[in-house]
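User: quick one, sequence for these tokens?
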């Protein structure tokens, strides 16, 4: 996250930095010429953090994972692997390392997956994930040459 400038009341700007502590929590680091020097700094920092926290709540996204894994019903034929989901915030698609062949996916509602371009090829052992700034919400169609080929999919 980029640094942000915050101007509490008529004070000089204050620099804020959200620091990922690596354990699922974040710390807000406050500095800048808008903070007084000395013992009052801690109280001033606390008041600024409280003012920001009242309007800017930062929490890591959490959601239950839904398993959409399956097998190819008919080799060479497109099938729906995952229905459209306007609330999807995370998508994982994996072709297990044990797979004998690639499979192909498409994220365009109404377009069948084909075992060639313009579908996206997922080779054995490859994992494709979407999160944060872009997650497709359309239907996920899948196609593979072999009936019974396994694929792994998760969404949240």
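Assistant:
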């Amino acid at each position: 996250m980029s640094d942000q400038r915050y101007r509490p009341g008529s004070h000089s700007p204050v620099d804020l930095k959200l620091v990922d502590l690596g354990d699922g929590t974040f710390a807000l680091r406050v500095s800048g010429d808008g903070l007084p020097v000395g013992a009052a700094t801690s109280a001033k920092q606390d008041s600024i953090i409280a003012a920001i926290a009242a309007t800017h709540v930062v929490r890591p996204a959490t959601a239950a994972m839904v398993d959409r894994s399956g097998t190819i019903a008919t080799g060479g034929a497109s099938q729906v692997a995952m229905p459209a989901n306007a609330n999807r915030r995370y998508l994982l698609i994996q072709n297990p390392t044990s797979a004998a062949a690639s499979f192909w996916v498409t994220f365009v509602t109404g377009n069948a997956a084909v075992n060639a371009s313009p579908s996206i090829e997922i080779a054995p052992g490859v994992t494709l994930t979407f999160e944060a700034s872009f997650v497709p919400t359309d239907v996920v169609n899948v196609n593979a040459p072999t009936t019974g080929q396994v694929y792994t999919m998760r969404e949240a």
